[in-house]
Amino acid sequence: MWLLDLGNSRLKAARATATGLGPVLALPWEGPDLELGLREALAGDDAPAWWASVAPEARGARVAGVLAEGGRTVRRVTTRAEALGLRIAYADPSRLGVDRFLALIAARHAGGAHLLASFGSAITLDLLDASGRHHGGMIGIAPRHAREALAQRFPALDRGNAPWAAGFAADTPQAVAAGVEAQAVGMVAAAWHEARTRLGESPVLGLAGGDAARFAPAIEALVGVAPVLAEHRVLEGLWHLARAEGALSPR
C-alpha cells in the first residue's frame, strides 16, 4: 500500500506494509516535476493508496489524478471524532486539519501525554492526555510569514532580511528576525506551561515540520526539556490507521 501526506509545502509518500513504512519520498509543490516524480515512484506498482491532504484542492486534484492512473484503489482519509482510542476536542471533526488528527493518532499509539508542535507553513500545537483525550490546540504564524506581514503592513520595517540571532538586535532586519523567531519559541513555551498546569504532569514535547530541528535547541533552553523530533508523524498516524483497519499487506 502507498500512503501519502499532502502538506502545504510538499507531498510525502511512502510504500507501507504491516511491518512499517518504507523510505519516504518528499516532493515540493513548486517543483516542475511533481507528477513525474510521483509517477516514477508508483511505476509498476498497482498497490492501493490512502492519502490525507491539507493542501489546496487544486493540488489534491493533481495527486488524485496520478493515483487514479492504472486503476488502483484510492481512499482519502479525513478527520474523525474518534479513532484508535483518540477522542478529538473539536465538535465538528472536519474543522481539525487531518494532519493534526493523524499526528495525534501517532502520539496516542506511543502512549502517555503529548504536546505536539508542528513548524510548517503555520505553527500548530495540540495537547493529548494519557487517556487519549485531545484538549484542543493553538495555531500561530510561522516566522517567515510574520516577516512578510510586518513588511507589508509597516513599510518602515521593510529593510531586508537578516539571519536569526537570539537576543537583542542593533538594527531593524536583525530585530525583526529575532522578534519573529522569539514569538515562535515563546508560543511553544506558553503552551508547554499551560499543558503542565492542565494535566498535572509534563507531557512528551514532540516537534515536527520543516523548521523543527532549527527550533529545538531554543525550545529546550526555555522549557528545560529536550523535545522529541518526529519527521514523518503524519505518515506514521496514517500507517497506524491503515493497519488497524486491516488494509496493509504483510509485505
CATH level 1 name of the largest domain = Alpha Beta
| Separate helix tally | 7
- Return the CATH architecture of the largest domain: 2-Layer Sandwich
DSSP, total strands: 12
* Main sheet makeup: 5 strands, mixed
Through-space gap between termini:
9 Å
What is the CATH superfamily classification of the largest domain?
ATPase, nucleotide binding domain
Query: What Rg is obtained from the alpha carbons, in whole angstroms?
Result: 19 Å
- Structural class, from secondary structure content? alpha/beta
* Spatial strand order of the main sheet: 3-2-1-4-5
User: What's the structural domain tally?
Assistant: 2
Give the DSSP E fraction (strand runs of 2 or more residues): 15-25%
**What is the CATH T-level topology of the largest domain?**
Nucleotidyltransferase, domain 5
The run of helices and strands is EEEHEHEEEHEEEHHEHEH
The gross shape turns out to be: globular
Percentage of residues assigned to helices = 25-40%
Keywords:
7 helices, 251 residues, Nucleotidyltransferase, domain 5, five-stranded mixed beta sheet, 25% strand, alpha/beta, globular
